[in-house]
Design goal:
disordered N terminus; ribosome binding; Serine Threonine Protein Phosphatase 5, Tetratricopeptide repeat; TPR_rpt; protein-N-terminal amino-acid acetyltransferase activity; repeat
């Protein structure tokens, strides 16, 4: 987004009629600021403050100027100094306005609203401030006060349609739909016959938005719904969005119970867009035939004759036909017709059926495709042959028959070694077999067939990151980035907010951190049983592992932290649209944007980063807890060792300087390796501020990760809240869930006498378990001989996920070695890729 800056925009008359020389000079500096002559403005302000260091307006304006000259820390000091000399918000209107602009610029929107409002309260006649306040209130979701601000601004500037639309939206956001409809109707009357051709699109949007409001206000009231229909008839000549118009008409008919009329509209929509699956489903509902497969089949056969090239009439019957002979006939026609045309995406088109109807579809499809495959000659029908073999490879991969999948993809590559798609699929198969490096190099071979294709480049990068070959991945991705004077494209990818790359690189660094950490621990354990000479020989290896471990952890956290930065930028970018969408007359798109913004921190990529960062922050907290428990005074020998370590650290610092260019993510970054992030004194607080708080503010109970909540609260020592997370998880997944059993054991372990928690918290936790999980044998807790692991496996259907969760908690009442054995036994039922991942990074 463009840099947001506003002029104070008010003639300087509010400093009092008898202005001092300092006031006049400050106003001159203000004009220079408005003209973006920041250095000249600062020069005048420095002169004022040299004589009068307490001149509040000059302090505030200097802070604002410094923000735009990228001296943000100094700016903050001057603004704080200005605010400290103000009683409450009793300052001149200009000073308050300057402070409002400053706080908006530094994204402290609540403070900005306070000072903009203070400017008005203290006598400012600049009503434009209400527009700024309105945008900020929208950003802060303060819809109650937004309505007040929008109304005042509308009353002052009624000549602009944007202000009418903005007020209507404010009514909408406060669920005052009738007022919004009346307001928009009033403007339509005033503007009747006066609109130009350039205003036609805005008019169309506002007409449809008014109908949206009428529809929301109508609820299930018959008279109001008929009014919505009448309004649709009235506005039809002026509406460009015919799809939206027809969809609304059908929805109203359905609410009125006029299914026949609704069906006619849905048929019209299908005629306009025969590839929209949703219209067919809605047509079924309007005809009330969802449970009558015979009529549904007849309907789709008829529709297929009308729209022979459309996909839905062919596909949808495959989802409900029960008779296997008939299903085979239909599926044969659907699949083979595509294979004959050489459609690469044939399997992708069928995969929803595989997922929905399981073995029935997979066995029939296998029979159909193999029969067709056996009729093909690879020389006479080369296109049909290669895509049929490609289908079979995907089919067997889906069924986890990796040997057959590998055989078929090798046949395809042998037949047509120039098809990029074949190498990608071969890479996928190898990945599932756990051969990550081989998979990466296979996809890379495909990339070399088309060096101009960004998609295959991206795929190759993903596979190299999956194999922890970060340097190679960065080298390849940099082929398509703007590198300028940078060593590679990492900085450009952060600038372009390429979340896919950042998150995958973060995960790769985390896996390397775990690998190095394990090797380091193994080497440290080994040193206790070897001679002094051997220990000296291993010192260099030990230091290298320590360096790599800390480096990878810091970089993993650094990359994970880039994701909330991107999403906060998305959230901040909304600010400009609160006024832009009003000017452009796009109220429906604007309301959609607000709804999107209300869930932005629940998006999959943000959640993925949050869960990844949680692993690091939680391990950091666990390390801190252990350090506190085992801290003792350093011996003289340890002090000498520290002196030696300092010398070695200097050598590693030189190495870091050389490596900085390779991992630099932001210009002028002072924490390239994430060392400051890792050195944070309160990891849980940092995790909460950066990730968990934004997520919790937007997530509802269905979205919340109760396991994460349980882990987080357990580490904060709030056992009552851990119990709350446990009961919520049990509510959604059932008390017999194996994860519930594991969570109870973990919580129970935290109530041990030696556990470092308050007695009252322990009592609350025990009482909660007793109340919520009556069948759980709490009386056995004091019995040291009781086998809790045996109890868990006997009373819960434990799975790999629940066992891993329990293992990572490392509780004293369950032996880790026995638990590990059980996990390794369970690995026999999963594919090699998952086996390797768990063995390498979770055990």
């Amino acid at each position: 987004m463009s840099r947001r800056k506003a002029a104070v925009g008010q003639k300087p008359v509010a400093l009092g009629s008898g202005r001092s020389k300092d006031d006049n000079n400050m106003l001159e500096a203000l004009k220079l600021y408005e003209n973006k002559s920041y250095k000249k403005s600062l020069k005048i302000l420095d002169g004022i403050l040299k004589k009068n260091s307490t001149h509040v307006e000059s302090l505030a304006l200097k802070g604002l100027n410094l923000v735009f000259t990228e001296q943000k820390q100094d700016a903050e000091l001057y603004v704080k100094k200005a605010v400290s000399r103000i009683t409450g918000t009793l300052a001149s209107p200009i000073c308050c306005h300057i402070l409002g602009i400053y706080y908006r610029q530094v994204k402290q929107y609540a403070n900005s609203i306070t000072w903009f409002q203070a400017s008005l309260d203290n006598g400012s006649t600049n009503k434009q401030i209400y527009r700024d306040i309105s945008s900020l209130q929208s950003q802060e979701r303060d819809y109650t006060n937004l309505l007040v601000s929008r109304k005042v601004y509308w009353e002052t500037f009624m000549g602009y349609r944007a202000n009418w639309t903005a007020l209507a939206i404010a009514y909408d956001l406060n669920s005052q739909y009738s007022e919004a409809v009346n307001l928009l109707s009033r403007f339509e009357e005033l503007a009747k016959g006066k609109l130009t051709e350039t205003e036609a699109y805005e008019h169309n949007e506002c007409l449809m938005y008014k109908n949206d409001l009428m529809y929301k206000a109508a609820g299930d009231d018959e008279q109001h719904l008929k009014a919505v229909l009448n309004n649709l008839d009235k506005i039809e000549p002026d509406v460009f969005d015919k799809y939206g118009w027809l969809e609304r008409r059908a929805a109203v008919y359905m609410k009125l119970g006029s299914s026949k009329e609704a069906a006619k509209v849905y048929r019209t929509l299908i005629k306009r867009n025969p590839d929209n699956f949703n219209y067919y489903k809605l047509l079924e509902i309007s005809l009330d035939i969802q449970s009558n497969n015979r009529i549904r089949k007849a309907l789709y056969e008829k529709l297929e004759t009308f729209y022979p090239r459309a996909e839905p009439p062919k596909f949808i019957p495959l989802t409900f036909i029960k008779d296997e002979t008939e299903l085979e006939k239909k599926l044969n026609h659907y699949i083979v017709s595509q294979l004959k045309r050489g459609v690469p995406a044939t399997f992708c088109n069928v995969i929803p059926l595989y997922k929905q109807r399981g073995e029935v579809i997979s066995s029939i499809a296998e029979k159909i495709v193999l029969e067709y495959y056996n009729t093909l000659d690879d020389k006479e029908f080369p296109i049909q042959y290669v895509w049929t073999v490609y289908y079979l490879a995907q089919h067997y991969l889906f069924l986890k028959d990796f040997k057959k999948a590998k055989d078929y993809i090798e046949k395809a590559i042998e037949h047509t070694p120039t098809l990029v798609e074949l190498y990608i699929l071969n890479g996928r198969i190898l990945k599932h077999l756990g051969l990550l490096e081989e998979a990466a190099w296979t996809v890379e071979k495909g990339r070399t067939l088309d060096l101009q294709d960004r998609f295959i480049n991206t795929k190759s990068v993903e596979y190299f990151l999956g194999a922890n070959m970060i340097d190679k991945a960065v080298q390849l991705v940099s082929l398509f980035t703007k590198n300028d004077n940078d060593a590679n494209g990492v900085k450009d990818l952060h600038l372009m907010e390429a979340s896919w790359f950042i998150i995958k690189q973060a995960e790769a660094y985390y896996r390397l951190y775990v690998e190095h950490s394990k090797k380091l621990q193994s080497l440290k354990n080994e040193q206790t049983s070897i001679s002094e000479e051997e220990r000296e020989n291993k010192t260099a290896e030990l230091k290298e592992l320590e360096y790599q471990t800390e480096k990878c952890r810091g970089l993993a956290l650094k990359r994970f932290m880039a994701i909330p930065k991107i999403y906060k930028q998305f959230d901040d970018d909304k600010l400009d649209f609160h006024s832009y969408c009003m000017r452009k007359g796009t109220p429906r798109a604007y309301v959609e944007m607000l709804q999107w913004g209300d869930r932005i921190f629940c998006k999959p990529m943000f959640v993925r980063a949050m869960l990844g960062a949680a692993k690091i922050y939680f391990s950091m907290q666990d390390e801190l807890d252990l350090t506190e428990q085992f801290t003792s005074e350093q011996t003289n020998a340890a002090k000498k060792a520290n002196k030696k370590a300092r010398k070695e650290a200097l050598a590693f610092n030189k190495r870091k300087e050389a490596e900085k260019k390779q991992v630099l993510a932001y210009a002028d970054d002072e924490d390239v390796f994430g060392e400051t992030l890792v050195a944070v004194k309160s990891p849980l607080e940092a995790f909460y501020t950066e990730f968990y708080k934004p997520f919790l503010n937007q997530a509802d109970d269905n979205d919340k990760y109760h396991l994460l909540e349980f882990q987080y609260q357990a580490r904060t020592g709030k056992l009552a809240l851990s119990l709350g997370a446990l009961t919520k998880y049990a509510k959604f997944h059932g008390k017999s869930s194996p994860m519930v059993g594991c969570m109870i054991l973990i919580l129970l372990d935290m109530t041990r006498e030696s556990a470092p928690y308050e007695d009252i918290a322990k009592k609350v936790a025990i009482k909660g378990i007793e109340t919520e999980f009556k069948k759980f044998p709490l009386e056995k807790f004091s019995d040291d001989s009781f086998n809790w692991l045996e109890y868990l496996t006997s009373n819960y259907k434990v799975n790999l996920r629940s066992l891993l969760f329990l293992y990572q908690a490392n509780i004293s009442i369950v032996p880790q070695d026995k638990l590990k054995e059980l996990i390794i036994e369970s690995l026999s039922n999963v594919e090699p890729f998952i086996q390797n991942s768990i063995l390498q990074y979770e055990l």
